[in-house]
Protein 1
Amino acid sequence: MNLRRDVFQAIADPTRRAILILVASQSMTAGTIAANFGTARPTVSKHLQILTECELLSKAQNGREIYYQLNPQKMKEIADFIEPFRQMWDDRFNKLEAIMKAYQSES
Amino acid sequence: MELKTKIHAQDGKQEITITREFDLPLALLFKAYIEPKLVEQWMGNTVIKLENKPHGSYQFEKRDPQGNLLFSANGTIHEFIPNQQITRTFEMENTPFPVQLEFLSFEALGENTSKLTMHVIYKSVAYRDQMLQLPFAQGINMAHNLLQKVLNQFK
């Protein structure tokens, strides 16, 4: 399987998005990250590998431990700061509007 | 197409304001926030608890098909005035983000149009900026393809 390792593929996966949020303000070891998900350690390792390959996460050696941290530079490639946030809310509110219109015509 | 949702985020402030105008009567917009079945539909989360009253609390979560918890959030409702105001806290569990304070104001613009103003206050400027930089943090529950569609526009 030869997947394209880009940031968009990386964040398409909900577990990987959860990992990015987890390490957003604090670097963590693979073990700590895995402990937060209750999934098999190899599964988390695979996610970390993908996130590292596309540079969303960087690794830092601290003694015998390897810590993963967010790479804000790369995050900027996804997010032109506020626009994606606004777009996220716009999509969410569009959904609300559509659902409530359907609800209105039902009742 | 002009986007209906506007965000006001002043540099160096620990707050943001999100406004949105809806083609919905005020009562229907408000209902989308208080009926668990409806909240689940547009938020994409499971509603564990939603007590719409002062001193009430709420709890949302999202699990993957294997049952692993991907997202969970909770908060306390401080003020609840039907068709007008919800003041509440919001906290994403198992994340580094501290609790935030949200003032949701609902108003009628016309018979079939309404407006929501969300005033959100964060613990610090740094936390606000981090939250804005992770647009999918709150939308972690978003459908896969929906997120992809949004992000594709920024390629």
Note: Residues 5-152 of chain B form a domain with the Alpha-D-Glucose-1,6-Bisphosphate; Chain A, domain 4 fold (CATH 3.30.530.20).
Protein 2
Amino acid sequence: MSATETLARTAASTPSRAAQPVDRESRRLGFRLTLPTQLLVLFIAVFPLLMQLYISLTDWSPLDGVSWWKAWQSWNNFANYTDLVEDRRWWGALGRTFIIMLVCVPAEFLLALGLATLFMDDFPGKRIFYSILLMPMMVVPAVAGYMFFMLFQSGGPFNGIVSALTGMDIRIAWLSDPTLALVAVMIADIWQWTPLMFLILLAGLVGVPEDQLKAATLLGANWRQRFFTIMLPRIKTIMVIALAIRVIEIFKIFDTLYIMTGGGPGVATETISVYVYKVTTQDLIWGYVAAIALVILIVLSVLAVFAMKRMDAAKNGGAAVQKGARA
Amino acid sequence: MTTIRLENLVKHFGDFTALKTMDLEIRDGEFMALLGPSGCGKSTTMNMIAGMEDPSGGRILFDGRDMNGVPMGKRGVGFVFQNYAIFTHMTVRQNLAYGPKMRGMRRSEIDRRVKNIADFLQLTPLLDQKSAKLSVNILQRLAIGRSAIVEPAIFLLDEPLSNVDAAFRAVMRTELKHLQKQFEQTMVYVTHDQLEAMTMADRIAVMDHGVLQQVGTPLEVYNNPANIFVAKFIGAPGMNLIAGELAETDRGLAVDLGTWGVSPPLSDDLAAAARAAGSRAVQYGFRPEEATLGPEGQGLRARVTFVERIGARTIVHVESGQTAKIVAGNDVACSIGDVVSIVPAPQAVRLFDAASTAAIRGA
């Protein structure tokens, strides 16, 4: 009811906007010029989404021998969604994804914030360290996965270093132990994605107006006070964006992890992406896959909208600051 | 409430010398303007007083206490930045309370100070507003209030009016001068705008290329510039300077200005000083406002090249080998190409040594 009201109000307000001197001819031209793009968007975004929604309401599988548009023949009245609620493997995968998120994102954030703060000052060799720090981000995830697979072998370099440090011959089978495998996967993720967070936060910190930091110093603020009262509040928006990016990315964690553990041992490191992958390629129940994917999409969209809102707020706030300085 | 002394202050940035040497005393409660074109070292001087930069040599004394090594947060310096550097993510109240809070004052003391300063600066109704959306004059008051609340010994202002449009600048100037009177604070004001320096400062320190050129009250600097740079820099338009040679005439010592003719005889004081100085090549100077324009005949001869009518006054550009400007009334009748004669007021004539550029002054 309220939705229709909103629609009606929008429709009512349209004529007043149309009263602007844009004649019908140029509006028609505008429509024609944007038509190819609109069709493209329709084709690559809207159409697959509708298709996914449609299939998610059926038991369709590519093995059925029925074309997907005839999937209505196996219409199942939201059974996929009710199954999902009772799917313990799904909940397990979701839980593990959350655990990885709750460990990795804060760890990456704190590490990155610390590093970014260090990099605000000049020190010898800064450029070299900067390049080294950004390297993990450039490594192809599959390669990183293989690298960590080798590192964490029971006779691998990781145990070698620990052995050398402790003086004992340590041969931990990292990737065969359910708990340690999860730890190994998290270490790999932190190694690979701290640089991205570092880069974003550094950009934010460098953008903090120097005058404000000087003003704070002159007013008697020490380094710690400046950090918490000026720098952190000033990069709040960027922090939210960096965190949102990483949270969304962790939901999709797949390639490195899959090469390291394949989701195992058992299902010990199975995240939602790995689970979806397995259901898609091994069980081949695509109606169910579509339902899972749609649920994930909705969750991530909510996160993305939240991040976008923050970004908008930042843009407006930034504009106000600039206006203040210029006026 | 502090006297600031700068002794042999020097600053190098690598090979570049920003400040050659500077000796200056800023008195208690004084409004001192550091005036000069950009790159003259005025901001560097100010930053060293604030402690943002360390001097390469020399000393800065606050009431006789050497400030070398004292960190900027401990100097008791209030600094108003060019863009005010207001913490835009905070409210007006949070901005004002920032200094006291960082110094660990008690809550009740902070509230008392914020209330007093807000009342004083008429910021009370705005206390809980976000400072990002305030207008410039309020930002200026807030910036001053935020520094004043910790009761600094001196205030340093770094071109605070340069971001303000011309019409509003006059309002801000008045307000700033008014505030300074009320606070009775020692203030150092950096600017490249002579109008700001002339209208607000008790004394002006004119600087150029890292060298202090002259220190004096606005009128001293205007009337008796110490050298050619100050003569040209102060005043709009600046002082007319025409190269010439001292010449004895039957009516006394005068200056032979070549194609302009021979100047009227110098006043006795000036003639005596010029004779004592010894050098013959001089620059003959007079303010554009202190010369009268007459028909050809007596005075200096020149041709009118341009007539700027700006309403209340008319600026007549004249040329005879060298150029000069005359400020006349708005009803002056002359047009481009006219040959006119210019009679500088005798008491307004200044002489400068052509080689050293220093003023030749009577006793």
Note: The mean pLDDT of chain B is 86.
Protein 3
Amino acid sequence: MNEILIKNACVIDPISGINGEIMDIAVSDGRIVEEVGSGAEVIDAEGFLTLPGGIDSHTHICGTKVNFGRYMSPEDMRAGRTPRRGRMHSTSGYSVPTTYGNSYRYSGMGYTALLEGAMAPLEARHTHEEFAYTPLQDTMANVLFDGNWAIMEAVREKDTKRAAAIVGWTLAAVKGFGVKLTNPGGTEAWGWGKNVSSITDVVPYFEVTPGEIIDTMIRATEMLALPHSVHIHCNNLGLPGNYRTTLDTFDLVPDLNRKRQTLYATHVQFHAYGGTSWSDFCSKAEEITRSVNEKPQIVIDMGQVMFGKTTTMTADGPMEFNLYRLHHNKWSNHDVELETGSGIIPVLYRRKNLVNSIMWAIGLELALLTKNPWQCLLTTDNPNGAPFVRYPEIIGLLMSRKYREAEFATIHPDTEHRVSLPSIERELDWQEIAVMTRAGQARALGIVDIGKGRLAPGAEADIAIYPLKIGEVDPGREYERVIEGFRQTEYTIKRGRIVSRRGECLVWGNNTTIWVKPKISERYDMAQDPAFVEKFDRYYTVRMRNYPVQEEYLKRNLCIETETEL
Amino acid sequence: MRVTLQVKPRKKPFLPIEAETIVPAHFLDGTDLVVWKGNRELPLSDVFSVTVEGTAETADEVEITMRGDTSRIKRVGEYMEAGRIVIEDDIGMHCGNFMSGGTIEIGGNADGWLAREMRGGSIICRGNAGNYCASGYRGEKRGMTGGTVEVFGNVGDFAAETLAGGCVVIHGSAGDMAGTEMRGGTLRIEGDCTRVCGNMTAGTCYVFGTVHDMLPTFRRRGTAVHDGVTLTAFTGDIANRGKGNLFVRDYKYMD
Amino acid sequence: MVTVEDGRIVAADNACTLGEQKFLGEPRLKGPIQREGKGWKDITYDEAILRTVEMLRDAERPLLFGWSGTHVEAQCIGVHMAEVLRGVIDNTSSVCHGPSILAIQEVGHPGCTLGQVKNRADLVVYWGCNPIEAHPRHLSRYTRYAEGFFLPNDYLDRTVIVADIRKTETGNIADEFVQVTPGGDYAVLSALRAIVRGKRDIIPRSVAGVPREQLFRIADRCLNAKFIAFYFGLGLTMSRGKYKNVRNAIELVSELNRHTKATISAMRGHYNVYGSNEVNTWMTGYPFGIDFARGIAFYNPGETTAIDVLARRECDACLVVASDPAAHFPRACVEHLADIPTVVIDPYPNATTAFADIQIPVAVTGIDAAGTAYRMDGVPIRMRRVLKTDYPSDEEILGRMYAMLQEDHPP
């Protein structure tokens, strides 16, 4: 039996209500336990900050679109290359690293679970193949339903149960985790080079609105009792004045779940824009967070932008085309039949650019103006706002007004007239950072019950020990020490094994893909629905029997079966 | 300081040697340097007889002479900032990549990617240069950004691709698609070429010979006299919203 | 539908002509063979694996080539082998659609899955390709003769334009055939881009054999279409200018997206060449032509691609997996293969066998081995096993080799 005793850990575990206590943590067989035998390996944590393993609830790391980002960017690949060393394979890339590059860098920063934000069901096998080569984290994939023909038909017929049945069948078939809506309705319109411009706009041919799709999918998700809520990328991403669409979307959301939010809105920075054009572009983070503060049924993540080069990639095909017209750099697009779309372009966020400066400020405002840290999680929508390796700097910015002021002095001078950031005094504390980087994610994804995001006995032994003594660092003044501390753990422990020691990964890996299978009665089994099967075989280019992802693609995995109303 | 590197005979002479260590600055600290032969690391002295005469305080005072069959030695002068390298015969691929200062003189021919992504300094090649002379890297928008490259012979295809700054002079002829995707700098071709400057957005190109298969998407603006020769002036590439300047003595379209 | 008798496939119904050849293909080697004098001797799988590993270990610059005819799982092991050996790994892209990849790396790729084309494309352009011969099912499944959701009257609802240097069979079934002077594709595409941008005035009377009026007509057909699917083949990638031709076609399609919906895709060859590109990309960052000599991945097609490495005699051992370079490569390349130790892993004897020192027969993916392949539009497909034989799979053979190589480099 593999046992570890971590002594003198300074633990922050918000879910268990532990805030900075010096204590020992016993680990046996991959789980946290009350005590271990005398033969356990002892790690002296020396009073260092010890947190549950980091969880990224919205990142793009595996699958068709991510790999196309790599494929089209040899210039990005040469920006970060390491050779094979010890148990680490070679890596390449900065904003879209190879799978090993992602896995090692996340692990070095203490991350032990990742949610791929957008998987097209038709191409799910690809995502799972890359998961197998992302060895040091547990992985989950949100499944795209934004332009799903069968779903839109069910919405048009106002048949929520049928929509739920389709979601249930698809999730189980493609071994997905949750429901993702990316620019709902817009990706189907993009099949004709068009888009939708509000939640009441009508999708060509299907005669449904984004609002109707969102409402039906929220109810279907709760009907299926999925661990995670609907996960939305709102319509109109990146456009001046889009905050109204975001607020309209939030206003649609009922409070239907006692354990978690009813809607998870991702990368809200990109959806909190005022103005009517780029010339009067400004922040509407105050309006957005006012709505979030009133609605416990909503959780958002930041989608923080950081200055520098990166690659943007999303299922939102029309949005990427707009970006392409703005930047006139390379542009890729990949529409997926009967389901969704996607687009990719490289970008450079510049300090001297007013729009980019305002975007940078908006992300921070969202985090600082959302009163409850459980409702605003730390992300960059990796790699869209910035590669995830920039997270430590974002923590620094949230914990230090002084750092924000120093950065503010270097950005476009007109920014101060367009944002409220300079007037915000709030500095987040260690506990709030722990919520925004792991505990909040675990609760929002609905994986606390399977042992994620906490360190109490019974939890999975996913632990990050950072070289930070919280009693000895004043984050407001010494933000550089905070950034350094979060950049690399002393130890990252995953499933009870030390996987990373000061950035050096020590095991080959093999972790768990978490997927969801709603229990659905035969009456609602879409595999036996003649109309569904007939349409599938007629309009897809793969046969329905070849569509489900076979068990061979799931190495180690955990299936969460849910009790449904169907 | 004068450093002489005389190539020794080696087994499997076709296997390339990667010798990015051969830049003047490195010899200020001695000759205990390594090169790579395929996947094996070798001391510099396994591949060359090394002789050093005199001393130097700075890289500017170092001159390296390479003798013998250097046609398979790659990456010589990479990231060079100062000093001088004289190659008596042919040189392998990637000579002078990312170079920002100093001088490289090649007595023979240069293989592909001579002066790729060069930033400054100067390279003279007495013979011919291969494909992608003074070009960029795959997927990168900007290639060479500064310095000068002068080739006395002919060059292969895609010379000065994505040129963004600096000056490239080809005394002989250029192959296909020289100056393609140019966005700055100056390209001067004394001889002939085909399909020059496709997709260019900015920069200036002179062709003193004939352009064969001239692209149809350049707008004729009249004539201009340059170095005493009357040239036809074009703007393009119109296909790409380009505003580059192309001057040619003679041209033929592919009808 | 496949009929099996005595462990051999004797009939394959409902397969296209290419599929039929694959199923009923020539006889397979019974076991590994090694060259002895002018002939061959039988060796065991254990001996063959050990000798291959020794060959690779000794090499200072091994080349691992092929990969397009095998499944993803084996391709992954291949990358790990190249990494631990510090060798060069490349696939058949360098002789087919490598130029398409280089073009995509410059300007991106507005594409889609085949179902989008089937259900929506009212205008299909085939440029420098002849699907009737090379991709026999393409027209009936996805374009000319396919029924789509928004195009219920297949033939009547769709317009097909074919551009090529001579009229092919596909040209015969087109609504419009565009005959381009050989080597003139780039100029014609540039002219179309300028027209789509509204610069009709600069177009000369004819461009590379195509009259101005026809250029205008094609551009108008594009601008008036609802959904354009542009397909190109080796006529574009392997003619003068290569990747710049493809780049120009992509930029035309990107430009058209300002006016309507347009997508572009390569008509790719080997059934799983795209799988090899995908695997290489997620594991090394680059789709083909990767040199691990220095430990890190270095990519420079024209230098690190198999044809160039072989023609310049820059490698000293070669492992060929699931492909036949001797049948497709220039003579200088094949001569070097003959000079250096070469091992072929392939179910069938082929032209490369004549230059090899050892050949190891394996199961065929989709017949007696299961595995993943990527369709040319990026959709991953599970290839099922329809026959049980004693042949080991590529994955098994390569897995054993990699395990031995790993022992040389304990972590």
Note: The first helix of chain A runs from residue 64 to 71.
